[in-house]
Amino acid sequence: MRLDKFLKVSRLIKRRTLAKEVCDQGRVSVNGKPAKAGTNVAVGDEISIRFGQKTVTARVEAIRESVKKEDAGQMFTIVKEEPTVEEEQASSNL
């Protein structure tokens, strides 16, 4: 499954167009490598997404073409959440 579609179906990112934009900006990596929207994801892959002030890493647990809202959380497991590097540097400079 394409990365942008997985992000939308799993509801890690709400809209597919937004998921594509985030990928194009270089804020998403799969298994430690920068990923484009068309990158294929498989069960067991780790996806890191840089949001505003945090980076979220999730492991792909299932691939489904469509899923109900309440079942979307079963498609991934959050491995870690950490502040972005810029946020850590800003707080250490205070």
Automatic annotation (TrEMBL):
Residue span, RNA-binding S4 domain: 1-62
Domain of life: Bacteria
GO MF, one example: ribosomal large subunit binding
GO BP: rescue of stalled ribosome
This protein's UniProt keywords: Protein biosynthesis, RNA-binding, rRNA-binding, tRNA-binding
Gene3D superfamilies: RNA-binding S4 domain
Cross-referenced CDD domains: S4 (cd00165)
InterPro entries in the record: RqcP, S4_RNA-bd, S4_RNA-bd_sf
HAMAP family noted in UniProt: RqcP
Chain's role: Key component of the ribosome quality control system (RQC), a ribosome-associated complex that mediates the extraction of incompletely synthesized nascent chains from stalled ribosomes and their subsequent degradation. RqcH recruits Ala-charged tRNA, and with RqcP directs the elongation of stalled nascent chains on 50S ribosomal subunits, leading to non-templated C-terminal alanine extensions (Ala tail). The Ala tail promotes nascent chain degradation. RqcP is associated with the translocation-like movement of the peptidyl-tRNA from the A-site into the P-site.
Subunit structure: Associates with stalled 50S ribosomal subunits. Binds to RqcH, 23S rRNA and the P-site tRNA. Does not require RqcH for association with 50S subunits.
Similarity section: Belongs to the RqcP family.
Name of this protein: RQC P-site tRNA stabilizing factor
Organism of this sequence: Thermoactinomyces daqus
